[in-house]
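User: My collaborator sent over this chain with a note saying "see what the structure looks like." That's all I know about it. Can you take a look?
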Amino acid sequence: MKLFLLICFGCFVLQSARSQTSNVVNQTISIAGSTESVTANGNTYTVQQTIGQSGVIGTFSSGDNTVRQGFIQPNVMDAVLSNKVPITLESQIFPNPFQNSISVTLKNNIEEKITVKLYDVLGRQVFNKNYWNNQQFNVDLHHLSSGRYIINVITAQKQFVGKIVKK
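Assistant: Without extra context I'll predict from the sequence alone. Here is the result:
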């Protein structure tokens, strides 16, 4: 089984190296499970199901590609990333983990609107607020419950994505 997974991963990496574009591959490999694309009313939906899991759960990344092994997991990064803006914004977020608020310091000189968005581990947006012309600002997050979140700091031409933890 380990050899099979290693071969599958190797094939995926080889295919990724040959292609210069990002691809989303929806595939379920298990004893009982499947992936099907269904078209209804002009929209295409991907339906995945799996029964049982007898392997290791993990995530492997290489460049623009991510391979998830294990139970079916949502692709949170599709919800978080703004595809029109490159991930080149340099920022520092502290403290992490935090209790009530975080401080965001931007290393770039930003003279425009700055949007801060937070997403939970399922990709649901739980916070969205705009800030103006600030190189450093505090974000009050006392209302959030304890857990892991993905933070996205977006300007008109750059964005930053990171992980934060609320105690």
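A starting point for your reply to your collaborator: The CA atoms of residues 46 and 54 lie 23 Å apart.
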